[in-house]
């Protein structure tokens, strides 16, 4: 990609302190965006701000399961920058992989609260200010190949991502009349802290080797920046007539291997 594709755009990235979110902050600011990083990992979030420059990004502590905090994060953004053009709803968790017979419903509820309810809350409040200000905005959500197929992730995560895809489609229908686009970006396995620490408990190189062996497209290892580049396309005006879609960044896995 060349050029500055988000010049003058104001962007919220949830889960922006690490992994795909942090990589997206770096890429989006390189393309001219002003980014508000929303996360609960305060030190990591401030480190990302420092790495890109305080003139390009700021950090706001927000638990996506708390709607008041979500609303306040959106208000902070609009008060600081005057508008909101793009929401990248990327915050997520993944629980332990167990049999459905041993399903921990407390873990299930937490996964749903963050991955699905949190996204719904941010879509609600981001879209409200976009509509109020007449902004033809873009909303992008990190889904997963687990939004399309099963067996690749724990039950709660798979359920939440299927639900998120439904929300994307439903929201795109409701917001189209306001000129607001809603899409998903669906990665295959990326060796992020979420996956390495919270799921596999393995080093990144081991996770990358595992995913490379099971991948359909050979000769390339999926990295966070590949997902960030797909999100950049959906956030930018280059996808001006794309809405209600789930862009797979999976090397064809969901087409060939399900």
Automatic annotation (TrEMBL):
Pfam families: adh_short_C2 (PF13561)
Highest taxon, organism lineage: Eukaryota
Gene3D superfamilies attached to this UniProt entry: NAD(P)-binding Rossmann-like Domain
Stretches of the chain forming a coiled coil according to its record: none
Recorded family membership: Belongs to the short-chain dehydrogenases/reductases (SDR) family.
Name by which UniProt lists this protein: Short-chain dehydrogenase reductase 3b-like
Organism listed in the record: Arabis alpina (Alpine rock-cress)
């Amino acid at each position: 990609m060349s050029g500055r594709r988000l010049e003058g755009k104001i962007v919220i990235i949830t889960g922006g302190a690490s992994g795909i979110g942090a990589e997206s902050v770096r890429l989006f600011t390189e393309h001219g965006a002003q980014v508000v990083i929303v996360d609960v990992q305060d030190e990591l979030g401030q480190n990302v701000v420092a790495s890109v420059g305080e003139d390009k990004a700021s950090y706001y502590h927000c638990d996506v399961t708390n709607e008041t905090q979500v609303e306040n994060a959106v208000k902070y953004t609009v008060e600081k920058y005057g508008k909101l053009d793009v929401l990248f709803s990327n915050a997520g968790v993944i629980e332990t992989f167990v049999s459905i017979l041993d399903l921990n419903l407390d873990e299930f509820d937490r996964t749903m609260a963050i991955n699905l309810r949190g996204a719904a809350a941010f879509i609600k409040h981001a879209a409200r200010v976009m509509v109020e200000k007449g902004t033809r905005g873009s909303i992008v959500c990190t889904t997963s190949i687990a939004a399309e197929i099963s067996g690749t992730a724990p039950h709660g995560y798979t359920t939440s991502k299927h639900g998120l895809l439904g929300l994307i489609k439903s929201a795109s229908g409701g917001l189209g009349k306001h000129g607001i686009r809603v899409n998903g970006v669906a990665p295959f396995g990326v060796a992020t802290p979420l996956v390495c620490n919270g799921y596999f408990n393995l080093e990144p190189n081991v996770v990358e080797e595992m995913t490379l062996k099971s991948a359909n497209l050979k000769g390339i290892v999926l990295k966070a920046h590949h997902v960030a580049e797909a999100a950049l396309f959906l956030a930018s005006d280059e996808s001006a007539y794309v809405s209600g879609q789930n862009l797979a960044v999976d090397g064809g896995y969901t087409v060939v291997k399900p």
